[in-house]
Amino acid sequence: MDVTQAVITRLWDALRSDTELNALMGAEYAGPLLKVPVDTLWPFLVHRLDTLDGVDRATRPASYTLEVWDYGTSFTRVWAVRARLMAILDGARFTVPGQGALRLWHASDAQLPNEDRNVMTLALTFQVRYARSGEVSNMLAQKGK
Length: 145
Fold this sequence. Notes:
Blueprint: H1 3-16, H2 19-25, E1 44-51, E2 59-71, H3 76-89, E3 93-96, E4 100-111, E5 119-132, H4 133-144
Antiparallel strand pairs: 1-2, 2-5, 3-4, 4-5
Helix pairs in contact: 2-3
């Protein structure tokens, strides 16, 4: 598994294992999804990891975006889900098995417009920095020579 897939899998696992988030999303929670589904139950989450080149091979910046989608007449559940996502992810540190460490910081929120007045969507973006353990070890070994 490459580092990007490992990072997004680790983030997925963190969200899926949170019992409070699962309770807010409901018994049929199918996300986080990598794309907006054609037919799925509401609410759902769509997530995306956009990676950038780092200043070295050991660390890499990225942005992680989570879209909260709900259908109804109020934003109440969307705000509750947002609060839970913030509790799980803002300032969080995760170990990514076989890859290294991951750190997230909340960067922005955006309500996404939709033609259907009952569709509510909020996108949360987190800045990410992850360290690839193999590259860090190689750099430290090179520095010691």
